[in-house]
Amino acid sequence: MNDSKPSAQLRITRRTPAYWRVTIDNPPINVMGPPMVRDFQHVIEAIEADEQVRVVVFDSAVDGYFLNHSDFNARFEDLTSMPNGPTGLPPWPDVLVRLTHAPVASIALIRGRATGNGSELTLACDMSFASREKTIISQWEAGVGLVAGGGPMARLPQLIGRNRALEVLLSSEDLSGDQAAAYGYVNRALPDAELDDFVEALALRISRFDKWALANTKRLVNTQLPPEVEIGAGWDTCMASIGREHAQQSIKALMAKGFHQPGDIEERLAYHIGQLGQ
């Protein structure tokens, strides 16, 4: 069954009742603003409400971008005015925490840039598989005076170790698919030509298993997760960082060079961030 239900910027395709695809589709560069956050809320609500779904794969329809950074052209108030979700957290960290706890296997299929929000979605998923040739993953925020808001400070140290987490977060550098796999940031980096078939086979395999067994196995593994208060603290600091003059000036400087548009700034964001202070 291929029952595609479009939303503004996310698309749910039910490959089978037990196996869904969620495709991110906000061209030209898959930035995430308040409308996409609301779409993610609808997606997680659908996942939680469905008794048959066992596997959800997140992928992208936009060439070169899995999920990009936040939309800095959007009205800040449109995000901050959104009510907290069922976890008590603001909408974006709420979605990520609920995805991590949802009684399904969630998989990120990463092809292109997973920058900021894309990295945070990857960390919230249960598994992630990256294109060796086409993946770039980063938490770029510290390089412009921001603090990331979707929980990487809480999640990354447990996943890749404190020192490597600090390397990723403080350097604001881009990591290739192979680098991310070597660090344990993603499960595996595969040749791009093999990525789709590998994820499809894995998702179909898991989708045939008993949901009760899958959900309870995941629940017991989740006892090792960081407490949600750490995710919330990151979001609060992120919101405080956005109004700081250093961050505002850095974003303005990037905008003047073509930030938020297809081209060299977005494709080599880490390089251009490194030039800001020179």
From TrEMBL:
SUPFAM superfamilies (alphabetical): ClpP/crotonase
Pfam families: ECH_1
Gene3D superfamilies: 2-enoyl-CoA Hydratase, Chain A, domain 1 (3.90.226.10)
InterPro entries: ClpP/crotonase-like_dom_sf (IPR029045), Enoyl-CoA_hydra/iso (IPR001753)
Any one GO MF annotation of this record: catalytic activity
Protein name as it appears in the record: Enoyl-CoA hydratase
Species, as recorded: Dyella japonica DSM 16301
